[in-house]
Every structure is written in C-alpha cells, then in structure tokens.
Specification:
The chain has helices at about 25-35, 90-100, 110-115, 120-130, 135-145, 150-175, 185-205, 210-215, 225-235, 280-295, 310-320, 360-370, 385-405, 410-425, 430-445; strands at about 5-10, 15-25, 45-50, 55-65, 75-85, 100-105, 215-220, 255-260, 260-270, 295-300, 325-330, 350. By secondary structure, the chain is of the alpha/beta class.
Amino acid sequence: MNDTISAVATAHGIGSIAIIRLSGADALDIAKTLSKRSGFKVRHATLTPLYNQKNELIDETIVIYFKAPQSFTGEDIVEIQCHGGMIVAQLILKATLDAGARLADPGEFSKRAFFNGRIDLSEAEAISKLIEAKSEDAAKILAAQIKGALKNYIEEIRDEMLHILAYSEVSIDYAEEDLPKDLIQQIIAKLDALHTSLTKTLRASESRQGLMQGFKVSIIGKPNVGKSSLLNMLLNYNRAIVSDIAGTTRDTIEEQVKIGTHLIRIIDTAGIRDASDEIERIGIERSIEAIEKSEIVVALFDNSRECDGEDDVILEWLEKYKDSKEIIVIVNKADLPCRFDLFKLKRYDYIEQNSKESAEQLVGNLEKIMDKNNISDEMMLISLRQIEAVKKTLGSIEEAKEPLVDGELEIFSFHITEAINAMSSITRPYETDEMLDKMFGSFCLGK
C-alpha cells in the first residue's frame, strides 16, 4: 500500500459538486502538480484552478489537504471539489492518474483506514451500511457505530472472555500458585452473564433486521381482489396494470416507497390460486417466495364476492405465518354491498377500505409496525456476518460448559478461544498475547 490511489468519491450523474479523493504518499505532490502551487495549508479549503498534462485548464476547484496520520485513511489525503457533471470529475481523475496515482479498487480507502488502525471492521461495515440506510432510525444506529458504539461493546465482551480464558489457563499451568479458591465459580458466573448479554443482543438484532435492510411488505390475495390497485395507490402512480381479468398480474412486482421515516419494498404478488398455465404457475411460486421473505404480509379479501376456496388458501397462509410475521388484513371494495363472510376474519383486526380511493389506514398501520422496531437500549448487530459471529460465539460458550463442569480445562480453553476468535471477527483479530497480559496482569504470576 505504498502507492497513491485516486477515485471519484461522489455518485455518477449530474450534480452541483463532485469530489475526487487522493490517498497516499504522493497525494500532496500530485495536487501541487495539477494546481501549479508550491503547497497547501493543512485542513484549509483553497480555491485553485487545476490543469492537465497539456497545461489546459480543467476547472476551478477547492482543494483540501489532510496530513497523515490525521486523516480518514491514516495517509496523506487530498480532496478535490469540482463542479459536478458527467465530464469534469472524470477529467480531473484522469489528470491525477497521469500525474502518478492509480485508480483505487472498490472499498480501498476504507481498507487502508482499517490497516492503518483508523477504523476497525465494525466501523468499516457501519460506513458501508450507512450509505445504504433504509430508514432514519437505521442511519442513527449506524452513525453511533461509526463513532465506535459497537466496537466498545465488542471490546467489553472480548475483555470478559479473555479474563475467563486467563482464569482457565492459570488453573492449568499455575496450580501451585496461590489462586482464588472459588475460581471455577467465578468462571461460571462470568460465562452466564456473557451468554445472557449476547443472547439479548442477538434477539434484538434479528427482530430489527428490517430496520437495517428495509422492510419487505408483500401484498397477497386471490386474483382480482385489488392488489395492483392498492400498489398503485401507495405509489401514487399507475405502476401495475389493473383490469377485471383475473390473473392480470402474472409475476411479482417490486417497488420502493417511503412511509414515515422508513424506506420499504412493496411486493405486489400474482393472485394465489390453482394455475391455469405454466407461466401463471411460476408467478404464483414467486408470490409464495415473496411471502416467506417479507416481514409484513398484507392480505386482501374482496368484500363484494363470496368467500371461496381461493380465499381459504390465503387464510391458511396467514395461519402458517401468524407467529413469525406481522399480518395486516384488508377487506377491500368496502363501498360495494357485502357478500364476504366476515366471520372468517374474526381473529384479525381487519381494515375496510377501497384501494382505488384511499390507503390511509393501511399506511398508518404499516408505520406503527415499523416504528415498533426503532432504536432501543439494546446494542444492535447490523449485518448477517455479525449475527453469525455472535451465534458462533454462543455455540462455543455452550460447548465449553460441559468440560468446565468435568474439570477438563484444556478442552474448555479450546472452546473459549473459539468464542473469542468468533467475537473478534466483528472488529479486529485476536492475538494470544492479549490473554497472556490478562494472566500476568490479573494474578501477578511469574514474579
């Protein structure tokens, strides 16, 4: 990583400002070459023209110099702010490459920040997720993690597990020393506290994944109950074709819409029934897949038609997922005379509406459901990778209990080391020297 890298840091497209970022030992020299200046004041915005190798003016820009190690990557960084657009930023990028930089690989600025100790893995992941945040609450959580909230939590867990490992290793290697008589009891107490804390974090994180990734809402019902009309109403434009012909929607249609402070993905599914042809059958299979992947299911029933076997299939699906998903039931076409057997919906607090005219009550119910998963006091894991790391940690803690009770401390230490490695994968790798520091620091051994 001794070379200097360069890339456009802003999204492609038309905009008022674009930013080109340079990082590496030659960043300042390249900036001086392009600007024909002798230098730049650290952390000072300097208005200056930039020129290419042919001495042609590219643009009048603002250049800011961040001196190592007080920069995002820990290296010298130069940020160039130019007028936005499709061309200017690319011309400046090319000029930096002609002056000796190379094009940065995807994520390389954050990678250099990690290797230079400016951020850990949890902070790097939070930066990536913040760019893709699907709600205001998610953005707040991720901003806190960029500032080290998750890192500090993981460090506390690591420290506790290192103490546990040190206790075990001391009991194995220094049995003749004057050790606490209740050492095993101390280990058990610490293990139980760790398990409780991590389980609480895991459950809170799994229940709020929709907050981080964007809630998925599937609209289901038999053909021609008004699913596509409801989607169009929520989007405020005619995205889906609406007709009186059953089976008009033959595949899932996905669109994003903001409700309250949340950006959600709404999936309009094909009507679920016995398919009349192969294409419709595939569409219905995809509808079922959409239900399984959604956090919220909106089920529509037609107020103007008698309940039939196709409605019963929808009710069976609701029964299947009632404990694992949020369910909203709508009796649609409420402006028409009622022919549907409403008694079949007695267990649901259903909404009566006409999807072609209003979806206000549905929007309110969706917002309430999503707001239930907003910020709370529990620490939150922000990715599947982090969740799997905590699951592996909990598994190793469970596996360590039996050898601990049986006095097989070597096997116990192995499982605790596995737990430490799994937990450390969220932030930074575990090093054996950390455990030795705990041993000698806590027990004054080897004096």
